[in-house]
Amino acid sequence: MLRTCRWCQKLKPHYPSFEWCCKDCHTTKEPKEAKERRRIKSLDRKKVRAERRKLNPKVKIWRREHHLKQRKLTIAKFNWMLNKQNNCCAVCGSKDPQNKNGWIVDHDHKRNWTRAILCAPCNRTIGHAQENIQRLRACANYLEIANDPSWR
Questions:
Q1: DSSP state of 18
Q2: Which residue in 46, 82, 95, 120 is a FRET match for 105, CA 20 to 30 A apart?
């Protein structure tokens, strides 16, 4: 669909996202106020969506079920695993998941199987170490040495 641009007055293709000008004028002549208004408007939309998600309890349940399906788990099996771990992290033993979305299902990326249920810090630690056992052992050894007062 062709449309006359309000700035250059030329007949050019209409882009739905640029209602008041052509694409060329939009990138070169758009006033700072209009850019700021669009930025604020998009932030407001994101806030509204986030608030809707918070208010709707079904979204949280759906998100949990979706993540469990990706790991080939049911809610019953997840609860069974958590009870088997005494309702705590399999690594550190913390009773608090330390994550707004709850416990995290740890899984092996190479073999695609579930290992255990972890708190957020333990899951991040394993992820940052790239699931490398030697790296995690080296980190543990370093902390033992570095925390020794005679080392300094």
A1: B
A2: 46
Give the Cβ contact number of residue 139 at 10 Å. Answer: 14
**At residue 138, what are phi and psi to the nearest 5 degrees?**
-65, -40
pLDDT above 80: residue 51: no
For residue 27, which of 7, 48, 56, 4 has the smallest C-alpha distance?
Answer: 7
Query: Is the residue at 82 inside a domain?
Result: yes
Residue type, 100: K
Locate 32 and state its tokens.
Answer: 């700072």
Domain count, the chain: 1
Among the listed residues 131, 130, 120, the one whose alpha carbon sits nearest the alpha carbon of residue 94: 120
State the pLDDT at residue 151: 72
Residue in this structure with the two tokens 């008041």, named with its chain if needed: 20
Any idea what the CATH number is for the domain that residue 108 is in?
Answer: 3.40.1800.10
Q: What is the identity of the amino acid at 64? A: R
Angle between helices 75-84 and 57-70 (to 10 degrees): 80
Would you say residue 63 lies in a domain? no
Using pLDDT thresholds of 50, 70 and 90, give the confidence band for residue 10.
confident
Task: Report pLDDT digits (tens) over 77-93.
Answer: 999 999 999 999 999 99
